[in-house]
Amino acid sequence: MIDETVAEIRAMRTHSTSAVAVKATRSLAELLDREYVTVDGFERDLEHNAGVLRRSNPSHAALHNAMREVERSIVGEATSVEDAKQRLEETIDRVADDIETAKGEAAANAAERIEDGDTLLVHDYSTTVLESIENAARGGAHLTVYVTEARPRTLGRKTARVLAGMARVDTRMVVDSAMGYALRDCDRVLLGITCMTGGTYYNRIGTFPLVVTARELGVPVTAVGSGAKQIEEFRFENEFRDAVEVMREPVEDVTIENPSYDATPIGMIDTVITDDGVVE
Fold first, then answer.
1. Which sequence ranges form a coiled-coil region, renumbered to this chain (predicted)?
2. In the chain, where are the structural domains located?
3. Could you confirm whether domain 2-105 is CATH 3.30.390.30?
């Protein structure tokens, strides 16, 4: 379970950073079925596997926080192997539930800021953003939502499919380079959060030019996500995807760069909404 989860995270088959953190946390349940002679042996194995999971995506603050919380709750606390396993089982449930709860509370807080008749623009794929919009629509709001394709992986298409299934949501898709066209009709940009640290907001590639364009056109930008994605003393590491995502057939003397994330100064974001509340 752990090895498969590491491979899935590295391949980015799970697109939501919160979902990644939950999946990684639950994968540690594999250790409950292993045999250990001593508590030290169990703790060493836990630290090793939590570290492997954490390093499988060094850009995800929620994943980093989840693995650290599991380690803090177990290592040095157990009196026997049985006690350590019980603590791990309880901690897995608590950490996973905390992530889901925080995401839900952040989405509920964001939904309160969405008004009936609003036109929004969203980018990439964020389950928290989708839940925010769904909450607002269920509350009776009629919305128009523009979705960018989010190339090169075109995850915006996945977002559009989910939005299309929501009542009272008029979904429209544009290519990334048409963001300026779409923003002229928008009341707000609503984005997810990969990580916030050191005064910088990290999110999927394409976020920075979107934020800059929105500011130029006077469209407020809101970032929504769990507070676990805000972290200090964290060195964000960008990921560089396979060049084939950009160009299927390589061209001689052309270097393809395919970064996964953009860095945007937090000061350029008008509103940050988490489970802890709203910061303007």
1. 78-105
2. 2-105, 107-279
3. no
Asked if 236 and 200 count as a contact pair (C-beta separation under 8 A), the reply is yes
Q: How far apart are CA 167 and CA 234, in angstroms?
A: 40
> pLDDT, tens digit, for every residue of 21-48?
999 999 999 999 999 999 999 999 999 9
The pTM of the full predicted model, rounded to 2 decimals, is 0.87
Q: Tens digits of per-residue pLDDT, 93-125?
A: 999 999 999 999 999 999 999 999 999 999 999
Q: What's the DSSP call for residue 15? A: -
| 130 contacts 159 by C-beta, under 8 angstroms | yes
Residue that the structure tokens 């910061």 belong to: 279
Distance separating alpha carbons of residues 250 and 8, to the nearest angstrom: 26
Q: Please measure the distance between the N-terminal and C-terminal CA atoms of the chain and give it in whole angstroms.
A: 41
By percentage, how much of the chain surpasses pLDDT 90? Answer: 82
Give pLDDT, residue 238.
Answer: 87
**38, exposed or middle or buried, with CB in 10 Å at 0-12, 13-18, 19+?**
exposed
The DSSP element (H or E) to which 202 belongs, if any, is strand 200-204
Q: Contact, 107 vs 86, CB < 8 A?
A: no
Domain 107-279 of CATH type 3.40.390.10: no
Using CA of residue 97, residue 103, residue 109, residue 112, what is the dihedral sign? negative
